[in-house]
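Let us work through a complete example step by step.
Step 1: write down the sequence.
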Amino acid sequence: MKRVILLIGCLLFNVAVLAQDTLIVGVVPQFESHRIRDIWQPVIDELSSRTGLRLELRQAINIPSFEKELADEVYDIVYLNPYHLLMANQDNGYLPIVKDSTRLLSGILVVSKTSGITSIEQLNQQKIAFPAPNALGASLMIRAELSRKNIEFTPVYVHSHSSVYLNTALGVSKAGGGVLHSLKQQKDSIQSKLTILYQTSKVAPHPVAIHPRILGLQPEIYTAFEAMFKSEEGKEMLNKIPMRGVEAATLSDYDNLKALNLERFVEK
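Step 2: predict the structure and record it as tokens.
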């Protein structure tokens, strides 16, 4: 009994200490840094206001840099793709706490409207742009499905979704991997030049996850997301992530991702 009381006391002490520290928030860099800040800084400020926690947005310059900081356990709270979650959970115990309740994640292949390409078979022996090797929908899932269809191609990694779309629109690459949300975030001058050639199977969307060192703060962080969604201003902020509905996330939500056998396409 004394041991249980001691463990509870230690947990409460750790939560109290963490509540006074600055917690680092990471976001997978799908877009340019200024756009990520525009989307996430208001969300972080609102979460801080609702929880009383001191939160600081830390932006990685590209996806490989983000992956390194994730592996180095830099982030206390992090918005990441589902495969990054599985890797971070296996390596360092990160746990998902909240995700969008309204959508699933899939990858898309886009081509220029003037390319003359109407089937993925025409991409055989061509260059295809991807944001990074381990971007889930925009790279891993697409490369895996092309491989299963025996389509050989040369991947070109251009560091962000926006660069993928620009390279494809300009004809530098024959096609590009992305996700529907990031495509819709592009300027009309880019979107109007592109068409979706192919869409992958679907998995649960990006979650917000926490490092186990702040596990005791999980209830209040999740409650803050719920409360934000119940206000019009908060809902508008979350929509931009996009998180158009709020629900609890668990590791089991991502079980079907393991069945895709993406391991051989992962680069570490």
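Step 3: interpret the result. Confidence is low (pLDDT under 50) at residues 2-11.
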